[in-house]
Write a structure and sequence with these properties.
Number of strands: 5
Order of helices and strands: EHEHEHEHHEHH
Structural class: mainly alpha
CATH topology of the largest domain: D-Maltodextrin-Binding Protein, domain 2
Number of helices: 7
Strand content: 5-15%
Oligomer: single chain
Helix content: 55-70%
CATH superfamily of the largest domain: Bacterial extracellular solute-binding protein, family 7
Strand order of the largest sheet: 2-1-3
Mean pLDDT: 94
Low-confidence stretches: none
CATH class of the largest domain: Alpha Beta
CATH architecture of the largest domain: 3-Layer(aba) Sandwich
């Protein structure tokens, strides 16, 4: 990873930096040209559905998985808190309900279209799907733990509170993932092949 010029944002970008990559963030519309010109060696963006639409396959023929920095989307609406609170209660609920519906719609759209897009990338555009070696996954996990521990140990109260809330929520979700979802997938792979 040393010196790899990589487009990826946020905490995930910090993980890649710890692995030796030179990380930058840029808007979706700038990634193609940066890959084409050689300014970037690699890019992480939402997933196959977007990658196909943005034409990354024309330049980048290797598709690596699993992502270990962004397992799902997190769309958001940012609104001035005071302005939101000025709205009547019924309009606040409309905003909340609309956001929830849109989040679910986007998640469903990607669940349905990412696999189709990946098939198209492979079958029609010659993209090679490759799996990160265990050494990279382990190094990424260790880097993420270091970053998370730094946030948990932060002297900034809000940072510390946010990190603690994240870890608490992660542990709850992990119970469902490991106790239900993973077991379902294992059983389906073992006993239900069509």
């Amino acid at each position: 990873m040393q010196g790899l010029r990589f487009r990826t944002p946020g905490l995930g970008g910090q993980v890649w930096e710890k692995l030796g990559a030179s990380v930058t963030n840029m808007a979706a519309g700038e990634i193609f040209q940066a890959l084409q010109s050689g300014t970037l060696d690699a890019a992480e963006f939402v997933g196959p559905y977007n990658d196909l639409a943005l034409g990354f396959y024309q330049i980048a023929k290797n598709y690596y998985f699993p992502s270990f920095i962004e397992p799902g989307l997190a769309t958001e609406l940012v609104v001035d808190k005071a302005k939101f609170q000025e709205l009547p209660a019924d309009l606040q609920e409309i905003v909340k309900g609309s956001c929830a519906a849109e989040y679910d719609n986007v998640a469903a759209d990607f669940a349905a279209n990412d696999p189709r897009a990946l098939q198209t990338l492979v079958n029609d555009h010659g993209v090679q799907v490759r799996q990160f070696p265990d050494e990279i996954l382990e190094a990424g996990a260790n880097a993420a733990k270091e970053i998370m521990q730094g946030l948990l140990d932060s002297s900034d109260a809000l940072t510390k509170k946010t990190a603690e809330s994240f870890v608490s929520a992660l542990n709850i979700v992990r119970q469902k993932t490991e106790g239900t979802d993973s077991l379902f997938i294992q059983a389906r792979e073992k006993y239900f092949q069509i």
